[in-house]
What we know:
Elements: E1 2-15, E2 22-24, E3 46-47, E4 50-51, H1 52-59, E5 65-68, E6 92-94, E7 100-102, H2 108-118, E8 121-126, H3 133-144, H4 150-157, E9 168-171, H5 184-195, E10 207-214, H6 218-227, H7 229-233, E11 241-251, H8 261-288, E12 295-304, H9 322-337, E13 342-348, E14 358-361, E15 364-367, H10 369-376, E16 384-391, E17 395-399, E18 402-406, E19 410-416, E20 419-426, E21 433-438, E22 447-454, E23 476-478, E24 484-489, E25 493-500
Parallel strand pairs: 1-21, 2-5, 2-13, 5-8, 8-9, 9-10, 10-11, 11-12, 12-13
Antiparallel strand pairs: 1-16, 3-4, 6-7, 14-15, 16-19, 17-18, 19-20, 20-25, 21-24, 22-23, 22-25
Helix pairs in contact: 3-4, 5-6, 6-8, 8-9, 9-10
The structure holds alpha-L-arabinofuranose (AHR).
Amino acid sequence: MTAKIEILLHEPVATINPNIYGHFAEHLGGCIDGGFWVGEQSKIPNVGGLRSDVVEALKKLKPPVIRWPGGCFADDYHWQDGIGPRAERPKRVNIHWGNTIEPNEFGTHEFMAFCRAVGAEPYFCGNVGSGTPHELRDWVEYCNLPGGSTWSERRAQNGSPEPFRVKYWAVGNESWGCGGSFTPEEYATEYRRFSVFMRNYGDTPLALVACGPSGNDPDWTRRFFTQLQDHLQAPWYKLPIYGFAAHYYAGQAGTATEYTGAEWYRLLWQAQQMEKLVVEQRALMDEFDPQREIGLIVDEWGSWHPPTPGYENRALWQQNTLRDGLLAALTLDIFNRHADKVIMGNIAQTVNVLQAMILTEGDQMLLTPTYHVFDLYQTHQGAQSLRTVIETPDVHFTYNGEAQQLPGLMGAASLKDDLLTLTVVNPQIGTPVETEICLPDDISIQSIRETVLTDADIHAHNTLENPNAITLSAARELPVFGATIRHTFAAQSVTRLDIRL
Ligand code: AHR
């Protein structure tokens, strides 16, 4: 099979917001408990209760932003439960995730410490479903007011005289479902009521995020913005909407580790539907926001496989294979290509839950293929996205008797200084793709390096016994012949080419 990739170096799309490479962490299963947090008394090495191996591994990914405390959990979370001496914090029932007991040991200060340790910005999700505007405005004040009020003094007493400077705040989560079961009109009313009491303090302007649709639901978006139109037009007494956040998961194609070839393609096909979501949602948003002041966010995405037998006590725990790695790569490339609209993405969820970067078991941990993709894609963060045209025959497959197709190669290109990054996903099982990569004639290439994530086994994954079964290849120098590159993309692979100009 042959293909052609044309990188239009003189057609920049926009700067890729590093937040596209964001993460999400919820009080659910082993994400916080045993993932981020083991507590100061634990035998597992930790700094102030934060798990050291997880912190070190995540730090290497340069995570730009982490969304917390949920998810569904956020709309039943009362932030005051998670401050002050840990021994005095109330224990609550986590009604969304198995009625487990939430000890509230990991609260605002612990999350902030985690963000600081890994170098990420915090993104808080406010409680709209069961909270009040008062409670949310107090949380903002507690975090961001430099001093002088009772809440800011309480923050100082609790160990942080400096404000936390939390910029990103979501006004609810999945308000169409677990976040309150609102209609779009009802949620628009709640959005106005909650956001109107949120304030910028000190040197921290807030970036407010409104709850978007479940998947690519046009009805939610249209009705929400219709109801909010006068608010959008007269924002003199309130903060503008920074982002509108959709959620989209791919799954139910085999299990996490057992799938046929058709199920491999089916999952990647589902992931590819993110492109349709972005294209259609942004077009809808343009109708209400023609100046494009509101960004599109996908603050939950990733694979959601059927439950893993034996892991009933660790809700939403799943293994992560090469297939998940390709899913992550093709999704990040969709966001890269739409860098002029997509301003944040948060894969669900960082550790031990759904499409995790890291899996822990007792004092051990492993890095997943998805971790390696996030590592590989780091050079796109903050680079200039470039229009890239890929010509290749589609892959045809049949799933449940239905004929479907998927592009034979997918990818994105970006430029930062003299480094041109091209990332390419070849989803084809057993079929390498010979490709001609064309740059404008006036460009001269100094060097090309290739790094690949692939394996002969499409089910390849890491285990505690074999934690490096699948990992990134060593970077390989490729020969340079003028402005056209001939390269063969390995079967079932993710590749990054670092092209020095
Ligand atoms: O990520 C798991 C759950 O998926 C989140 O809590 C919720 O927002 C979504 O439905």
